[in-house]
From TrEMBL:
The lineage of its organism: Eukaryota, Metazoa, Ecdysozoa, Arthropoda, Hexapoda. This is Elongation factor 1-alpha. It is found in: Cytoplasm. Its main location: cytoplasm. Residues 118-205 form the GTP-eEF1A C-terminal domain. GO terms for molecular function: GTP binding; translation elongation factor activity. Residues 38-103 form the Translation elongation factor EFTu-like domain. Belongs to the TRAFAC class translation factor GTPase superfamily. Classic translation factor GTPase family. EF-Tu/EF-1A subfamily. Pfam families: GTP-eEF1A_C, GTP_EFTU_D2. The gene is EF-1alpha. One of its GO terms (cellular component) is cytoplasm.
Length: 205
């Protein structure tokens, strides 16, 4: 095999393709009120692009407004792309209306929505005792931190193949994987892992 020195190997690396062709998804990390500017949400762009003039919708609150400007490291951007940590100024929305855990999307291109319930694969890594229907832990999904009820444990599955090993199990325990229907205690934005991976995975605490 052909050998390369470290510098050559690093130079040969191709940067990963950024998912700019997908609809806009930007989970909010913080929201600030800046004197003379107004309301400035901040977060990391996960998919799509964000430009001044974009009409964004904040889900799950369903608040729509126009983006006046986009900044990264105190420099104005004409276009933000996935991976960029940006602040963006929005029109006619107060700081109190927005919060960490909301998702900004393009109102005209597959906008994000809140989920009343969702089905997910859950792997129990470490938990004392059994988990059964009705268990309500806190989920950390993107920047949201919301209690969700295990409404129905539908199937116990093989962790490697994903195939069902038991229908409607009474409980699951450490080491088990299961398909579970979850109901958030308040509106939550989640997406399918296949479509938007950063918004389709979560940790249960």
């Amino acid at each position: 095999a052909e050998r390369q020195c470290l510098i050559e190997a690093l130079d040969a690396f191709q940067p990963p393709a950024r998912p700019t062709d997908k609809p806009l998804r930007l989970p909010l990390q913080d929201v600030y009120k800046i004197g003379g500017i107004g309301t400035v949400p901040e977060g990391r762009l996960e998919t799509g692009v964000l430009k001044p003039g974009t009409i964004v919708v904040f889900a799950p609150a369903n608040i729509t407004t126009e983006v006046k400007s986009v900044e990264m490291h105190h420099e104005a951007l004409q276009e933000a792309v996935p991976g960029d940590n940006v602040g963006f100024n929005v029109k006619n929305v107060s700081v109190k209306e927005l919060r960490r855990g909301y998702i900004a999307g393009d109102s005209k291109n597959n906008p994000p929505k809140g989920a009343a319930d969702f089905t997910a694969q859950v792997i129990v890594l470490n938990h004392p005792g059994q988990i059964s229907n009705g268990y309500t832990p806190v989920l950390d999904c993107h920047t949201a931190h919301i209690a969700c009820k295990f409404a129905e444990i539908k199937d116990k599955v093989d962790r490697r193949t994903g195939k069902s090993t038991e229908n409607n199990p009474k409980s699951i325990k450490s080491g088990d994987a299961a398909i579970v229907n979850l109901v958030p205690s308040k509106p939550l934005c989640v997406e399918s892992f296949q479509e938007f991976p950063p918004l389709g995975r979560f940790a249960v605490r």
